[in-house]
Each structure stands twice: as structure tokens, then as C-alpha cells.
Specification:
With 246 residues, the protein is α/β, with parallel strands linked by helices. Helix 3 crosses helix 4, helix 3 runs parallel beside helix 5 and helix 4 crosses helix 5. The protein is globular, with a radius of gyration of 18 Å. The protein starts with 6 loop residues before the first strand and ends with a helix.
Length: 246
């Protein structure tokens, strides 16, 4: 019998709608310690809005979000310090070099300076950024800025990791580095939530795959299943056909 893993993030019936009809409608979602949970959907499905709601960047109009069992509005600063996230754009101050950006990120997560120096050195090596340590972020390619953002989100070994389309702009080498970094952290007990439309990459790392469409959960996919892409599009198509009749 499998042991029940602790939920590090839990959403119940969260909803947030915008003028014009876009948004998220009544989503339930859980991320357990030690698992990688992927959320997949077409562009405009509501993935980024969902991530922002889960991180408190947007307030839900209905429903609740809990971080380690505590509603996010009541979560202590120490709890948020144990979260690593990248949503939409990587945190990188353009006039600071890569090393300084990572140091700032570590300090913003409450890491003492002495330990932060060691974490930054490790992050530079983990994401193959050592050659860019003294290069200003404004001079980096999009892919390397994404690496800096990911390194900053992961370097403090957070217990919860939330990443929105993290492979955007990454070259194949960067994708592999990220994959290995997430597997290491999940193996050490972190809960990982990642949104993506790259089904082949999701299948390599995810324990669970949740499909969203038009702001709703419409089903799940088996990451070990055959022809994941066909199964995904079948779910989305069936939902698109049925939804106007509701």
C-alpha cells in the first residue's frame, strides 16, 4: 500500500473570470511532496492565470488555495520563502550581472549572505552559467535569461516549485539541465507544478498530467501512455464540441 504523500499545495474550486469570458472556473488541484504534477493545455487555456492564482498574484473570486495546509492569505513569510517560482517572465534585473541577479534572488528568499554565496556558485554550475557570471542580464540571449530565472527560482531548494512554461526559449541543452534539476528536487521531496504545451517533455518527468481547456480541468493523461499527443487533442476536441451545448 502506497503511503499518502503530504500536500504542499492544494486548490479547491478556485475561479477568476475576466471581461470577455477568459479565466479559470472551479479548478481543483493538488501538488504532493516528492511529485511532479504537470498542467497541460493549448495557449489561452488558462494555465498562466491558474499559476498566478496559486501563487497569490491574483485573488480568486471563489475557492481556496492552501500552502502546506494554510490558506495563502494567512501563510507566514517563512512559508513563502520556501517557494520557488517562475511565471511569465524570468526575474532578472537588466543592469545587474548574472551572479548579482542570483545573489539578489537568494537574499529575497531570506538566505543569509554567507550561504547565498555558496548557493549562487552551485546554481551557476547547475545551469551552465559560469561563463556568463559577470555579464549583464540585458546582454544575454532569451534562452540564457530564462536559465537565470530558473536558477534563481530553484537555487534555494524550495519545498514547492511552480513553473509556467519553463522550457520557453531554452535550447535542447537547457531543457535537459532543467529536467535533471526538477527530477533531483522532486527526488529530494519537493513538490513541483509545471505548466507546458510540450507533451513529449512532460511525459519524461511528470508523475501526473492534468489537462485544462477553457479555464477548466477536463481530464488527466497517463504520462507513460502511448501517443500522449493524440490523447490530449482528443480530450480537448471532445470538450470543445460539448461545451457550447452546456
Amino acid at each position: 500500500m502506497k503511503a499518502v504523500r503530504r500536500a504542499v499545495l492544494e486548490a479547491r474550486a478556485i475561479a477568476r473570470e475576466f471581461p470577455g469570458g477568459a479565466g479559470v472556473r472551479g479548478i481543483d488541484l493538488t501538488v504532493a511532496a516528492g511529485e511532479i504534477h504537470a498542467v497541460v493545455g493549448l495557449n489561452g487555456a488558462g494555465k498562466t492565470t491558474l499559476m498566478r492564482l496559486l501563487l497569490g498574484m491574483l485573488r480568486p473570486q471563489a475557492g481556496t488555495v492552501r500552502l502546506d495546509g494554510v490558506e495563502i492569505a494567512d501563510a507566514a513569510p517563512q512559508a513563502w520563502a520556501g517557494v520557488g517560482h517562475l511565471v511569465e517572465h524570468p526575474l532578472a534585473y537588466p543592469e545587474l550581472d548574472v551572479r548579482s541577479n542570483l545573489l539578489v534572488s537568494a537574499r529575497l528568499h531570506g538566505i543569509p549572505r554567507e550561504r547565498a554565496e555558496a548557493l549562487v556558485a552551485r546554481a551557476l554550475a547547475e545551469f551552465d552559467l559560469e561563463r556568463y557570471a559577470r555579464v549583464r542580464a540585458s546582454r544575454l540571449s532569451l534562452g540564457n535569461r530564462q536559465r537565470v530565472g530558473l536558477a534563481g527560482a530553484l537555487q534555494h531548494d524550495p519545498g514547492l516549485i511552480v513553473l509556467d512554461e519553463p522550457t520557453n526559449a531554452l535550447d535542447p541543452a537547457g531543457v535537459i539541465l532543467l529536467r535533471e534539476a526538477l527530477l533531483r528536487r522532486a527526488g529530494a521531496g519537493a513538490g513541483v507544478l509545471v505548466s507546458s504545451h510540450h507533451l513529449d517533455e512532460v511525459a519524461r518527468i511528470a508523475d501526473r498530467v492534468t489537462v485544462v481547456n477553457a479555464g477548466r480541468v477536463i481530464g488527466n493523461l497517463d504520462p507513460a501512455g502511448v501517443d500522449l499527443e493524440r490523447a490530449f487533442f482528443a480530450l480537448v476536441h471532445a470538450d470543445d464540441v460539448e461545451r457550447p451545448r452546456a
